[in-house]
Amino acid sequence: MVPTHYYLILSAILFGLGTVAFVFRRNIITIFMSIELMLNAVNLAFVAFSQAWNRLDGQVFVLFVIVVAAAEAAVGLGIIILIARIRRSLNVERVDLLKL
Amino acid sequence: MLILDNLWIIPLLPLLGSATNGLFGKKWPNKIVNSVAVGSTGVAFLCALEAVREFFQLSPEQIPLVKQYFSWIVAGGFRAGFDLQVDQLTVVMLLVVTGVGWLIHIYSTGYMAHESGYYRFFSYLNLFMFFMLILILSANYVLLFVGWEGVGLCSYLLIGFYFLKKSASDAGKKAFIVNRIGDFGFMLGMFLLFRTFGTLDFVPLFAKAGPMPADLMGQYGTLTIACLLLFMGATGKSAQLPLYVWLPDAMEGPTPVSALIHAATMVTAGVYVVARSNVLFTHSPTAMLVVAIIGCATALFAATIGLVQTDIKRVLAYSTVSQLGYMFLACGVGAFSAGVFHLMTHAFFKALLFLAAGSVIHAVGGEQDMRHMGGLGKLINKTYITMLIATIAIAGFPPLAAFFSKDSILLGAFQSEYGGHVLYAFGLATALLTSFYMFRLIFLTFSGKPRFDEHHVHVHESPNSMVVPLMILALLSIVGGWLAAPAFWGGTDYFTKFLDPVFSHGAEAAGAAEAAEAAAHALEVPLAIVAVITALLGLGIAYWLYIKNTKKPEELAKSLKGIYTALLNKYYVDELYAATVVKPLMWISREVLWQRVDVQVIDGTVNGVAAGAVGVGDNVRHAQSGNTRSYAVWVVIGAIVVIAIVFWPYLKPVAVGMVR
Predict the structure, then answer these.
(1) What is the pLDDT, as a whole number, of residue B152?
(2) Contact between residue B135 and residue B148 where contact means Cβ atoms under 8 Å apart
(3) pLDDT digit string, tens, across residues B175-187
(4) Which residues have a Cβ under 8 Å from the Cβ of B501 and sit 6 or more positions away?
(5) Disulfide: which of B284, B292, B347, B410 matches B218 by Cβ 3.0-4.6 Å?
(6) Topology of domain A4-89, per CATH?
(7) What whole-number distance in Å separates Cα of residue B52 and Cα of residue B87?
(8) How far is residue B376's CA from residue B505's CA, in Å, rounded to a whole number?
(9) Residue B329: how many CB atoms within 10 A of its CB?
(10) What is the pTM of this model?
C-alpha cells in the first residue's frame, strides 16, 4: 500500500504548480485550468486523509468540491466568453478596469 | 411662621415673574408686563414684611433661623445645600432689597415706558431681585456665591441693555470681567475656609472660628489670607480700589438699573459679605486694617474724581464708590453695625438721587451733561425738592439719614486703635468733598440760568409712577436715620442694639462694648458738631463757586490745570490699566494663545492628522492596481503568512537552526 505522505507530497506539488501557473500565466483559460488543478490537488489530499483515517468525511467533501468546481466552471466559462467577445483577447492584463 | 417656614417663597416670586415675562412678555402689552413684574416684587416685599413680623416673635435662641430645603452638592464630608437663613442682618438687607427694589420697579414702569425691549428689561430686573435675595438669604458661602454671580450676570445684562450702543456693551463686558478678578479671590477664599474648617455653612463655621485666638496674623495667617481673599471679591463687587473702574462705566445702563443695582443693592453685596463674615475678620486685625485703609482710600479717591465730572450720573457713580468706601471703612474699624446702617441709609438716598437724576434726564429729553442743564428747579419742582432732600441727606446734615450713619462711622474710625485719627481725618475730608460735589450737582442742575435750548427741549415733570417712588424714598431718607439716633439726640440707637447679636460675640465683648459706649457718648457731640461744620463748609464752597461767582470755577480750572485735567481724566487709571493689564493680555491672547496655541498647535494637530490620513491613502491606493494577477500574489503571500504563523512552533527550530 502506498504511504499517505506520498499522496500529500504529490498533492502539494500539484497545488504549487497550480499556484505558480495562476500567478504567472496570462491566458485566462490557463489560469482557469490552474484553479481546477489546485482544487483537484486539494481533493487528492482529502481522499488521502480519508483513506488514512478510514473515515468517509473527506470523500464527502471531495464530492462537494467537484460540484462547486462544476458550477464555477459554468459561471467562469460564461464570463470568459463575454470577456473574449468584448476585448477580443484572453490576456488577463488587459482586464484591469477595477483599479482606483 | 407661615413665611419663615417657607422662606424659599420670597426669592421664588421674582424668579417666576422673570420667567413669565421673559418667556411670554414679548407679545404682551406693557400693562401686563408691568403687573407681572411689579406684582411679583410687591408680593415678595409683603412676604418679607410678614417674615420680619414673624421674626420678631422668635426667641433669641431660635436666631439665626436656618431652614434646610434640599442638598445641592454632597461630596464626602462636604455639603452645600439650598439652605436659607434669617438673622438680624438678613432682616435689614431683606427689607432694603425688596422695599427699594419694589419702588424702583414702579419707577421703571414710568421711566422705561417708551423704550423697546420693555419685557426684557423687567425680566432681567426681576431676575436680579431673585439672585439678590438668594445672596442675602443663603446660609452658606456656596449658595451666597450663586447669588453673587447671578447678580453679576444681571448687572452685565442690564448695563448692556442698549446693546446696539458699543459703549454700553463694552461697559457690560468691563463690569463682568473686572468682577471675575474679584470672584477669583472670593472662590479661593471659600476653598481656604473649607480646607481650614471643613464646612462652608455660616453657623458651624463661625462657631468654629469664634474661639480662635485673635493674634496679629490670625491663626498663623490662615484667617488673614482667607479674609483678604474674601475681601478681594468684595472689592470687585463693591467697586473699591483697585477694582472700582467698572462702576462709573456701568452708568451706560438705564437709570433705574443704576439706582437699583449700581447704587442701592448689588454693589453693597461686598459690604454685606464682610459684615456677614465679621467673626473671621475680627480675628484678623491685619485684614481689618487692610479693609479700613482700602475703604478710606477709595472714599477719598472717588470723591476727588466726583468733584469735576460733568455727567450727572457719573458724579453719582463716583459718589457711590466713595460711600461704599465709607461702609468698608466702618467694617474695617470694627463698626460693622455702622457700616450696615450706612448701607441702608445709602440705599435710600442714593436710590433717590439716581431716580431723581433719571427724572431730570427724562425731563430734558435724555441730556446727561450738567453743563447743558441749569434752572430746572422751578420747572420740575417735585424732582427738585426730593433730590434736594437726598442731597442734604448724603451731605450729612441733621436730622437726615446720612448724618447718623456717617457720624457713627466717623466715630468708629476715631476710636479705632489702628491709626484711627488718620482714618478719621480722611473720612472727614471725604465728607467735605461729598457735601461740595453734591451741592455742585444741585446748583448746576437746578439753579442759575437754563443752559439748554429752550425752544427744542420741553421740560416736563415726570409721571406719577416716577414721582411717587421719589417721594417715598425722600421720606425714608429723612426718617431712615432715626433708627440709630444716638442717645444725645433722644433716640436709643435701636439699630446697633438690634444688630448686636450678629456682630458681638461672647460676654467679654459685651463688657468692652459697655466701656466703649461710655467713651463714645462723650465723643458723640463734638464729633457731630465737627461733621456738621464740615458739611456746611462744603455747601458754602459750592454756593460760592456755582451761585455767587460762576466765572470762578473756570478760573480755578485754569490756574490748577494739572490737577484739574488729572481729575477730569479720573487720574488716568483706565489708561494705566489698559497699558499694564489689558494690552499685555490682549497681546498674549492674540500672539500666543491665538496665533501659536490655537492656530499652530490645536488646528495644526487636527489638520496634521487629516493630512496624514490623506497621504497614507494616497500611497496605499496603488496596491489596488486592477490587475487580477497582482491580487493573486497578495492572496498567495497572505496564505504563506497564515501557514507560517500556524506552523511556527514546528518551523522555529528549523529557522533558528538556519540562522545559526
Answers:
(1) 92
(2) yes
(3) 999 999 999 999 9
(4) B60, B63, B87, B88
(5) B284
(6) Helix Hairpins (1.10.287)
(7) 10
(8) 52
(9) 33
(10) 0.79
Residue B276 has pLDDT above 70, yes or no: yes
**B626 to A22: CB separation less than 8 angstroms, yes or no:** no
Element (H, E) at B83: strand B78-86
* Predicted confidence band of residue B512 (pLDDT cuts 50, 70, 90): low
Is the dihedral angle over the CA atoms B338, B341, B347, B353 positive or is it negative? negative
Complex prediction ipTM:
0.81
- Whether B629 sits inside 8 A of A23 (CB atoms) is yes
Cell of B75: 461630596
Residues of A with CB under 8 A from a CB of B: 19, 22-24, 26, 31, 92-93, 95-100
Provide, as residue numbers in chain A, all residues whose Cβ is less than 8 Å from the Cβ of B627: 92-93, 96, 99
Q: Identify the DSSP state of A97.
A: T
For residue B508, pLDDT over 50 is answered with no
Contact with chain A for residue B617, Cβ under 8 A: no
Find out whether B306 and B433 touch, Cβ atoms under 8 Å.
yes
CA distance A18 to B588: 71
Strand, coil or helix: B297: helix
Q: Does an H or E element contain B69, and which?
A: strand B65-75
CA gyration radius, chain B: 31
Question: What cell numbers appear for B9 in the block?
Answer: 417663597
How far separated are the first and last CA of chain A, in Å rounded? Answer: 54
B319, B303 contact by CB (below 8 A): yes
**pLDDT per residue over B608-637, tens digit each?**
999 999 999 988 888 777 777 788 888 889
Chain B residues with beta carbon closer than 8 angstroms to that of A31 = 628
Question: Which residues from A are below 8 Å from B633, CB to CB?
Answer: 23
DSSP calls for chain A: ---HHHHHHHHHHHHHHHHHHHHH--BHHHHHHHHHHHHHHHHHHHHHHHHHHT-SHHHHHHHHHHHHHHHHHHHHHHHHHHHHHHHS--BGGG--TT--
Domains of chain A, by residue range, sit at 4-89
